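Progress against Task 2.4 (sequence-to-structure conversion) is shown through the following example record, which the project officer requested during the mid-term review.
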Amino acid sequence: MLSIKYKSSLLTGFFILTSFCLQAQNRVLNLDSVLHYIHHNNLMLQEHEIQTQALKTYAEGAKSWMAPMVGAGVFMYPYPGQTIMEGRDKGMFMAAAQQEIPNPAKLKAKEKYMLSQAAAEDEGHEVMANEFRAQAKTAYYQWVVLEKKKAVLQENQRIMQFMLKLSQVRYPYNQSSLGSIYKAEGRLAEVENMLLMNNNEIIMKNIRLNMLMNLPPNTRFQIDTVVQVAAAMLLPDTTYLSTARSDIRQIDKKIQSMQLNLQLENLERKPDFSLRLEHMMPRAGMMPQVFTAMGMLSVPIAPWSAKMYKANSKAIGLEIAAMQKGRESLLIEAQNMVASMGLELQTKQTQVSNYETKILPALRRNYETTLLSYEQNTGQLPLVIDAWEALNMAQMEYLNNLEQLYLIRVNYEKELEK
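C-alpha cells generated for the chain above:
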C-alpha cells in the first residue's frame, strides 16, 4: 500500500499538471514554477519515490517469524509381512508441529537495518532531484539567452532592412553603389537564417523542459527573461557542505546502514530457538496415547559456524572504513570545486559587466555615429555595415558570456545543493 503522504503528492502533481495543460499556452513561467512542476510531476522522481516506499514496506515484515511446519505420518510402523507378536508392535500414527522462534534482538536489528536502507534511498531521491534541477536551470537559462539573442537578431533584421531600403532609394541618384546593396542583402539573409536557427533552438529548450516536467512535447509556454545572478558566497567549509549536499548525506546514511548491518551480523553469535511437538496415537487399543515436546537451541559459537559471521563482520568493518575515506575525499573535492567555481563566477561577472558598461556602449555610439553620417550623405554604407557588424559581434559575444555566466552559476548551485 502506498503511504498517505505519497498519495497526496501524486494527487497534487496530477492537479498541477492538469491545470498547467489547460492554461499553458502563452503562459509565462518563471524558474521557480518550472522547478515546482518538476518536483511534483517528473516520472523518474516518482519512480524513485515508489521504490523507496517499497523498501519501507519491506521493513514492515522484518519482525515476522518463519511459518510453522506441520506434518503427519507413522511411528515404528512394521513393514508388510512382518509377524506381530504383541499389540504394541503395530506402531503408531503421529502428528507433528514445529515453529522456529528467532532471537528478538536479531529481529529488531534487522528492522533497523532495512529502515536505514530506505533512509539512504530518501537521500538518493534528493541527489536525483538536484540533478534534474540543474538540468532544468541549464535549459531555462539557455532559453533566456536565446530570447535575448532573438531580440538582438530582430533589431539587426530591422536595421539591415532599413539600410537596404535606404541604399536602394539612393542608388538611382548615385549616392549608393550596387555592391553595397548586394552586401546589405547578404547580411540581411544571414540575419534571417540566424533568426530561424535561434527560434528552432528555443523550441528545443521548450521540449526539454516539457520532458522534465512530464508535459506533452507540443506544450508551449513563455519564460521570464529577467534573471538575476547572485554573487558567489564565501568559501564554505566541509561542515556546511556535509549538511547541504545530498550525496554526502546519502553516504552518511549508507555508513549508518552499514553500521547497523554490522550490529546485525554481530548478533549472529546469539542463539535461535525452535519448538517441536509430536502427538502419537497407537494402533493397538490398549496402548496409551503419547507425545513428545522438544525445545531446540542453536549453538552459533561453534568454531565451524562462528568463522562465517566473524569474517562477515570484519569485511563490513572494512567497507565502512572505505566509505568514510570516500566521504572525506568527496568533501575535499567538493570544497575545491566550489572554490574554483566561485572564482570563475566572479571573473565571468566582471567580464559581463565590462560588456554592459564599456564595450557595448562604445560600439553602439560608433555605429550610431557612422549611421548618422550615412544618413547625412557624409559616410558610406560599407562603413555603416562594418560598424554594425562590430556591434553585432560584440552583442553576440556578450550573450555568449552571459550564457556561460548562467551555466557556471548552475554548476555552482549544484555543488552547493541550492
